[in-house]
Amino acid sequence: MTTIVATPRHRFRGRDIIAGVSVALIGIPQSLAYADLAGMPGYTGLYALGVPLIAAALFASSPYLQTGPVATTALLTYGALVPLAEPGSPDYLALAGLLAVVIGVTRIAVGLSRAGWLSYLMSRPLLEGFMSGAAVLIVASQLPGALGANAPRGGVLLRASWTLSHPGEWEVMSLLFAAGTAVIIVAGRRVAPRIPGVLVAAGVGLLYSRITGYAGPTVGDIPTSFPPLTVGLPWSRLPTLVLPGVVIALIGFAEAASISRAFASEDRERWDANREFLSQGAANVAAGLTGGFPVGGSFARSSLNRMAGAGSRWSGLVTGLTVLLFLPFADILSPLPRAVLAGIVIAAVWSLFRPRTLLRIWSVSKSQALIAWGTFALTLALAPHVEHAVLLGVLAAGAVHLLKELRPVVASRRVGGTLHLEPQGVLWFGSAPVLDDVILAALSDEPDVEEVVIHCGGLGRIDLTGAYQLAEMLDQLRVTGLKVELAGVPDHAVRVLTGTGAQSEAASRGAGAHAAREEHPR
Question: Tens digits of per-residue pLDDT, 441-479?
Fold first, then answer.
C-alpha cells in the first residue's frame, strides 16, 4: 500500500499558488491545441486540464510534474480512435473518455502492484525513433490548419503533402498566425524564458481576431459550464480499446518518468515511479469521467512550474482549480484563430525530431540504430496506428537483445601449453550450446595444448542449464586427457557450479577465500 508522508516537499507553500496559476495561463491555450490534435473539440482540452490535475496532485511523487493534454498522447489517442469513429463526433468523444479510463486503470494497476520498473522496458533507441517519427506526424497534421488549406480527407502525411503541393489553397492570415505564433514561442524561450510565449502568442491572435472580426477558422463555441461527471461510457466497446490503452499507458508514462527523473536528479531527491503511475492513472480516470481525453506529463509546463518556484505537488492542484474557475469565462477564447493553435503545437514538438541523435546512435551501435531508425520508419508508415510501431519496436529490441545473449563472445590466448578461454556474456539454456561449440572450435585450432583454463569472471549470470552443460563439456575434455580448470568464478555462480559438479567443493572454497582476500586485503 502506498503511503504519502508529509515531508517538506509535500507541504503546501505560498509560492505554489504563483506557480500553479502561471502554469494554468500557459496550459489553457495549449490544451485547446492538443485537443484539436487528438481529434477532440477544443473545450475538452480544458476539461482534461482541470479535474485530472487535481486528481494527480493527490498521489504525485514529483513536486513539479504537471499533468494534462500533451502532444504525444494526443497523437496516440487520435491513432487509436480514428478507425472507430468520426473525429469530433459524440461517439468519438465517448470513446476518448473510455480510452482514458483504460489508460488510467492500467497505470493504477501498475502502481499498486509496484511494477514501476515497466517504465524502463522501452529502450532509449526505440523511444528516440518513435519520438522523432511522432514529431514528424504531429507537425504534418498541423500543416493544413497552419496554412489555412482545406485538405481532402485521408492520412496525416497524405493531407500534409497535398497541402504543401497546393500553395494556391493557402490563406495568408493563417500562415502569418501560425508562423508568428511559432516564432514568438521559440524566440521567447531563448531570449526571455520567463515570459510565457504561448500566452503572448494566444493573446495577440485573440486580440487581432476580436478587433478585425477575423472570418477565418477559429476555436468556435466553448461551453461555459463545469465538466460533466458521467459513467455512461460505451463499455461494450471496451475490448477494442484494451490493447491501445495498455500501450498508450506505458508509452505515455515514459515522458512523465523522464521529466520526474531529470528533476529529481537535479534536486538530489528521491522519485517514486510507483507513486507517479498512481498519479497519472488517477488523472486519466478523472479525465475519462469528466468529458476529457487521455493525458500525460508535460515537459514544458513542468519546467515552467519549477521555474516559477513550485515547492510541492500541490502546485498542480492550484493549476487545476484555476482552470475550473476559468471555465465560466472560457467563451472569451472562441474567436481565437485555429492557426494559432497549430503554431502552438508545431512550436512544442519540432524539437522532438532529433536526426542528429539518430545518426549518433548509428555511430555507436549499428544494431541499436536499426531499432531506432526502424521504429522511426514504422511510426510514419503505420500512422495513424503508431502504437503498432512501438509494439514492433519493442519486439525488435527484444530480438536484438536475445540474439546477443545467444551468441557469447569467447576470447582465447595461449601461454605455453595452456589455452586460456575468457567467455563474456550470459550462460543460460539458450547460449550454452553456442558456448560449447565456440570452446570446442577454439580447442580444435590448438590441438596440442595440455591444459585449458576457462575464466568465468566475464559471465554475468549462469543458470542451471548452462551450469549442467558446462559440467558435461568439462567431463568430456577430461576424458581426452586434458587438464581443465575454472578460474575467476563469480560469487553468484559458485553455488550452481558446485551443485552441478562443474566445480569441486575445494575449488569453490578456494574461490571464496580468494574473493574475500580481494575484498578485504591486509
Answer: 888 888 888 898 988 888 878 888 888 888 888 888 888
pLDDT for residue 516 is more than 50? no
C-beta atoms surrounding 515 within 10 Å: 15
How is 398-423 classified by DSSP, letter by letter?
HHHHHHHHHS-EEEEEEETTEEEEEE
Mean pLDDT rounded to a whole number for the chain: 86
CB 76 within 8 A of CB 248: yes
> Average pLDDT for residues 113-139, to the nearest whole number?
84
Position 360, amino acid: R
Please count the other Cβ atoms lying within 10 Å of the Cβ belonging to residue 147: 23
d(CA 480, CA 443) in angstroms, rounded, equals: 12
User: Which stretches does DSSP call E strand in 416-467?
Assistant: 418-427, 451-455, 459-462
The full set of domain ranges for the chain reads 18-352, 355-405, 407-519
Would you call 160 helix, strand, or coil by DSSP? helix
Cβ neighbours of 228 (radius 10 Å): 11
Whole-angstrom distance, CA of residue 78 vs CA of residue 62: 28
Quickly tell me which residue has 531506432 as its cell.
372
Does pLDDT of 74 surpass 90?
yes
Residues 367-389 have pLDDT tens digits of: 899 999 999 999 999 988 888 88
Q: What is the pLDDT of residues 286-336, one digit of tens each?
A: 999 999 999 998 888 888 888 877 778 888 999 999 999 999 999 999 999
CATH architecture of 407-519: 2-Layer Sandwich (3.30)
In the three-class reduction of DSSP (H, G, I as helix; E, B as strand; rest coil), residue 440 is classed as: helix
- Single out the residue of 146, 139, 147 nearest to residue 380, CA to CA: 139
- Decide: helix, strand or coil at residue 395: helix
User: CA distances (Å), 105 to each of 49, 62, 379, 458, 515, in order?
Assistant: 19, 20, 26, 42, 48
Q: What is the pTM of this model?
A: 0.79
CB burial readout 300-336, b (16+ within 10 A) else e: bbbbbbbebebbbbbbbbbbbbbbbebbeebeebbbb
C-beta neighbour count of 395 within 10 angstroms: 10
| DSSP label of 18 | H
User: For residue 421, is it left (φ>0), alpha (ψ between -120 and 50) or beta?
Assistant: beta
Q: Using CA atoms, how far apart are residues 99 and 102, in angstroms rounded to an integer?
A: 5
Q: Which of 295, 312, 324 is nearest to 58 (CA)?
A: 312
